[in-house]
Hints:
Blueprint: H1 3-10, H2 13-30, H3 39-46
Amino acid sequence: MSASSFISSSVDKNRVAASLYGLLVGDAIAMPVHWFYSPQKMRADYGELSGMTAPKKTHAESSK
């Protein structure tokens, strides 16, 4: 059995697609607050988040 036929026969393409969609959705949802390392700083900048929010022009935990 060749490597390509093994990969195509052992990988469920629907599961791969669902994983990629999940990755994209999770990244989009987390985008405004992605690199916050302190929940207190995140709440100070955004308050309580309950939906999609536009990012700030500067990031609280960046060097600039």
